[in-house]
Amino acid sequence: MTGFSIQHVAFDKNAVDTWAAEHPRHTNWPVVYVIDRAGNRRKLYVGETTSTQKRMRQHLAGSKKNEGLDSIRVVIDERFNKSVCLDLESHLIRWFHGDGQYELFNGNDGLTDAQYYDRDLYRESFRDVFEALRAEGLFSRSIPQIENSDLFKLSPFKALNHDQAIAITDIVEGLLEDLQHPDVRSTLVVQGEPGTGKTIIAIFLMKLLADIRDFQDHDDVQPDSMFAEFFVPEYRELLADLRMALVIPQQSLRESVKKVFKKTPRLDPSMVLTPFQVGESDAAFDLILVDETHRLGQRANQASGVQNKKFREINEALFGEDAAHYTQLDWIKARSKHQLLLVDGEQSVRPHDLSPAVLSREVREARDLHRHYRLTTQMRVQAGADYVEYVRALLRDEHPALPSLGSYDLRFFDDLGEMQAAIREQDASVGLSRLVAGYAWDWKSRRDPSAFDIELDGVQLRWNSTDKDWINSAHSLDEVGSIHTVQGYDLNYAGVIIGPDLRVSPTTGRIVADWDAYRDKKGKERTGHLAETFDDEDLLVFIRNIYGVLLTRGMLGTYVYVCDPGLRERLRTRLSAVI
Question: Nearest-CA neighbor of 29 among 39, 38, 19?
Answer without folding.
Answer: 19
